[in-house]
């Protein structure tokens, strides 16, 4: 996940940036609370620190959060609710912000660091909630899924990849694949909960199966509250029999039909987050080994209209 940039993929740079941040941060943290370093996985890469440089409890930097509850959402996803160190402060997060989690496996030389996106309302004091999809052999996701209420997690907070300005864009198009829904949900929630932000939102949410439609209940509630400003389109590549959702992946035809706003307008913005294959298809990938044009580029969207998390 990274800032607005040309279609050529710069994942390596993003990963290196996060790695460097992680290593520097980890060295500092190791003096205080045994937090550590390694490269996080991409869904792009992070930018600079979050708004005001504030983190849980109002301070930027490292924190240890206590898990209050862990709820199984479907067969591979959990919703983890953590207590902030200060129960009276909110997390101090801004739109498009994420935290870095740290853990050091017993048999590893280096710690595992990964970015995750809080999905609860920023104004809620005392808590951060993560929605974490577990990957087979996924080091961070398996660790997070193994946590029990009362266990603690070392985090660095917050970081941000895009500076959101209310009303900068008339039409905000969010394209999410699988667990890539979390940054989109955070952004959508923040826009709609801000009475001064009038941006219209179209969310295109692609998943493998019906049960992967996490946060559906919350998305439905937002759609009902904001029928004129939010529209969600679901597409399922392997739907159940009788499934009400569109069958298929995020295709050029789907994007052409559903994306809102003039293609060449500065008031139209597209945000994208999904698994690497989906991002490569929608955004393109240009690098040493591949040179693939993205669907958005084919449809006439300019690089600066697209932000890939
Ligand atoms: C800014 C940002 C915010 C993020 N927010 C969230 C979030 O809120 N919730 C969440 O669940 N994840 C989120 N991610 C992804 C998360 O950081 C990890 O990349 C993910 O949990 C996998 O890490 P792991 O250590 O478990 O897997 P790894 O040990 O790194 O990989 C294990 C296996 O899983 C596969 N794998 C890893 N990631 C993916 C993927 N995205 N799609 C398909 N296969 C994959 C790998 O190819 C490998 O085979 C975010 C990523 C970024 C960049």
UniProtKB/TrEMBL annotation:
<dbReference type="InterPro" id="IPR001834">
    <property type="entry name" value="CBR-like"/>
</dbReference>
<dbReference type="InterPro" id="IPR008333">
    <property type="entry name" value="Cbr1-like_FAD-bd_dom"/>
</dbReference>
<dbReference type="GO" id="GO:0090524">
    <property type="term" value="F:cytochrome-b5 reductase activity, acting on NADH"/>
</dbReference>
<dbReference type="Pfam" id="PF00175">
    <property type="entry name" value="NAD_binding_1"/>
</dbReference>
<keyword id="KW-0274">FAD</keyword>
<feature type="binding site">
    <location>
        <position position="131"/>
    </location>
    <ligand>
        <name>FAD</name>
    </ligand>
</feature>
<comment type="similarity">
    <text>Belongs to the flavoprotein pyridine nucleotide cytochrome reductase family.</text>
</comment>
<dbReference type="InterPro" id="IPR001433">
    <property type="entry name" value="OxRdtase_FAD/NAD-bd"/>
</dbReference>
<feature type="compositionally biased region" description="Gly residues">
    <location>
        <begin position="44"/>
        <end position="58"/>
    </location>
</feature>
<feature type="domain" description="FAD-binding FR-type">
    <location>
        <begin position="60"/>
        <end position="165"/>
    </location>
</feature>
<keyword id="KW-0496">Mitochondrion</keyword>
<feature type="binding site">
    <location>
        <position position="114"/>
    </location>
    <ligand>
        <name>FAD</name>
    </ligand>
</feature>
<feature type="region of interest" description="Disordered">
    <location>
        <begin position="37"/>
        <end position="58"/>
    </location>
</feature>
<comment type="function">
    <text>May mediate the reduction of outer membrane cytochrome b5.</text>
</comment>
<keyword id="KW-1000">Mitochondrion outer membrane</keyword>
<keyword id="KW-0812">Transmembrane</keyword>
<keyword id="KW-0285">Flavoprotein</keyword>
<keyword id="KW-0520">NAD</keyword>
<feature type="binding site">
    <location>
        <position position="115"/>
    </location>
    <ligand>
        <name>FAD</name>
    </ligand>
</feature>
<dbReference type="InterPro" id="IPR001709">
    <property type="entry name" value="Flavoprot_Pyr_Nucl_cyt_Rdtase"/>
</dbReference>
<keyword id="KW-0472">Membrane</keyword>
<dbReference type="Pfam" id="PF00970">
    <property type="entry name" value="FAD_binding_6"/>
</dbReference>
<feature type="binding site">
    <location>
        <position position="141"/>
    </location>
    <ligand>
        <name>FAD</name>
    </ligand>
</feature>
<protein>
    <recommendedName>
        <fullName>NADH-cytochrome b5 reductase</fullName>
        <ecNumber>1.6.2.2</ecNumber>
    </recommendedName>
</protein>
<keyword id="KW-0560">Oxidoreductase</keyword>
<feature type="binding site">
    <location>
        <position position="182"/>
    </location>
    <ligand>
        <name>FAD</name>
    </ligand>
</feature>
<dbReference type="InterPro" id="IPR039261">
    <property type="entry name" value="FNR_nucleotide-bd"/>
</dbReference>
<dbReference type="InterPro" id="IPR017927">
    <property type="entry name" value="FAD-bd_FR_type"/>
</dbReference>
<keyword id="KW-1133">Transmembrane helix</keyword>
<feature type="binding site">
    <location>
        <position position="133"/>
    </location>
    <ligand>
        <name>FAD</name>
    </ligand>
</feature>
<dbReference type="InterPro" id="IPR017938">
    <property type="entry name" value="Riboflavin_synthase-like_b-brl"/>
</dbReference>
<dbReference type="GO" id="GO:0005741">
    <property type="term" value="C:mitochondrial outer membrane"/>
</dbReference>
<feature type="binding site">
    <location>
        <position position="116"/>
    </location>
    <ligand>
        <name>FAD</name>
    </ligand>
</feature>
<dbReference type="GO" id="GO:0006696">
    <property type="term" value="P:ergosterol biosynthetic process"/>
</dbReference>
């Amino acid at each position: 996940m990274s800032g607005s940039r040309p279609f050529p993929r710069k994942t390596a740079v993003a990963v290196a940036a996060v790695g460097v941040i992680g290593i520097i941060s980890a060295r500092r943290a190791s003096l205080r609370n045994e937090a550590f370093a390694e490269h996080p996985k991409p869904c792009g890469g992070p930018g600079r620190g979050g708004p005001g440089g504030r983190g849980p409890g109002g301070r930027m930097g490292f924190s240890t959060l206590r898990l209050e509850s862990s709820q199984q959402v479907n067969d591979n996803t959990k919703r983890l609710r953590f207590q902030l160190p200060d129960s009276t402060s909110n997390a101090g997060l801004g739109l498009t912000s994420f935290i870095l989690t740290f853990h050091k496996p017993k048999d590893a030389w280096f710690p595992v660091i990964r970015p995750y996106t809080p999905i609860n309302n920023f104004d809620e004091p005392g808590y951060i909630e993560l929605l974490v999809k577990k990957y087979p052999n996924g080091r961070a996701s398996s660790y997070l899924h193994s946590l029990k209420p009362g266990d603690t997690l070392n985090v660095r907070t917050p970081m941000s990849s895009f500076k959101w300005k209310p009303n900068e864009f008339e039409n905000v198009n969010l394209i999410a694949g699988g667990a890539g829904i979390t940054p989109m949900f955070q952004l959508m929630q923040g826009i709609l909960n801000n009475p001064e932000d009038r941006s219209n939102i179209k969310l295109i949410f692609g998943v493998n199966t019906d049960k992967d439609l996490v946060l559906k209940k919350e998305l439905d509630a937002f759609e009902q509250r904001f029928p004129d400003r939010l529209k969600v389109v679901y597409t399922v590549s392997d739907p159940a029999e009788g499934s009400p959702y569109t069958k298929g992946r995020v295709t050029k035809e789907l994007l052409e039909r559903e994306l809102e706003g003039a293609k060449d307008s500065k008031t139209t913005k597209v945000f994208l987050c999904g698994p690497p294959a989906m991002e490569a298809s929608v955004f393109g990938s240009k690098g040493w080994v591949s040179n693939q044009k993205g669907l958005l580029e084919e449809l006439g969207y300019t690089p600066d209209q697209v932000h890939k998390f």
